[in-house]
Description:
Elements: H1 2-34, H2 38-47, H3 49-58
Amino acid sequence: MAYGILFCMKLKIKRLEKENEKIEARRKIYLAILEDDEDALLAIMKKDKELLLDVINGL
């Protein structure tokens, strides 16, 4: 039973780490938009186009 709890906790930690990465990426996108940093936006577009489009559609 303890192994099951540990396994669930590891899965939860991985999920939270992925969520944290998405939040950090969104923060970088918002900063690039606010600062009108075209180079940063191009780099983000090459790396994660879908997330950039989600942020832009949310504005």
